[in-house]
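Model: You mentioned two targets. I'll fold them one after the other.
Researcher: Yes, keep them separate.
Model: Target one:
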Amino acid sequence: MKKVGAILVSLLSVVLLVACSQQGASKKSPASSSQTTASTEIKKTAASSSEVKEKEKKEEKKEVKKEVKKMDLEAIANGDYSSIAGVWQDDKGNKLVFNDKGLVSQELEGYGASLTDYGTASEGIYGGRDGGFLLEYIPAGVTIGDQVDDQGQVVFKDTSDASKNRLWSGVGIASFGEQGSIYYHVGDE
């Protein structure tokens, strides 16, 4: 408590010295002028130091927000879905919910994912009103090239946000055989 009081008294003294020296600026001697300059420089340094710290804190917060949880494809292929646990939603409002064991649904059931040779994992989902669909697990940073049919027509163009983990679903016989739907993680269970 005494230390805090001493620090406050010291700070108050510095503020008063600076204020008094600024009032008598026209009557200064060269010695008092250098003291005022030193005090002003200390204040500027302290202010710029606190501004730098504040800026660093803001940048750290931005980095935390940008950080994407890594989608662990190997774990998913081994039945551990914890890296994608939570709610995923497409642009039509359809939702898929995962826990650490897989898809959480009364109507749908996954039959195990397997790794692909193009940087994703793929799984068949069975049930529901359509009988099922293909589900592709696409980690952040992975992009899928355009897919064309036998006539050379583009049937899938990856317009998804590759900075985020995504899920692709479609009812075709092969992954990306149609545009399908892209799901993004929107929250926890």
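Model: Target two:
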Amino acid sequence: MRRTPSTLANPTSTHAILARAKGELHMNTTPSVIVYSAEWCAYCKTEKQYLDKLGVSYTVKDIEKTPGAQDELAAKTGGKAQGIPVTDIAGEIVYGFDRARIDELLTAKGLLPEA
């Protein structure tokens, strides 16, 4: 399924709904932020709400529903991830919901939207 920016901008579009059903919601076609999470994870939900509040574009990969997400996460972390959320911010890995580190990396990588 091809996702285009116009369909991704509308979270109620058929493509966005199908992506959510597969456990993967693309907020941007070329994400610099990927959140590895699961539906039941309270810290994951809190982190995604925080990123939404900041207006940061990101991709969610549900480690239980997105095919290959667990393997991808293991490859990126060298198998070190023992919990979620794990966030990839332009190649830098953040373990857990570490707000200070997330803020630091988003600022350093220029991923915060301009106010």
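Researcher: Noted. Anything on target two?
Model: The CA atoms of residues 63 and 71 lie 9 Å apart.
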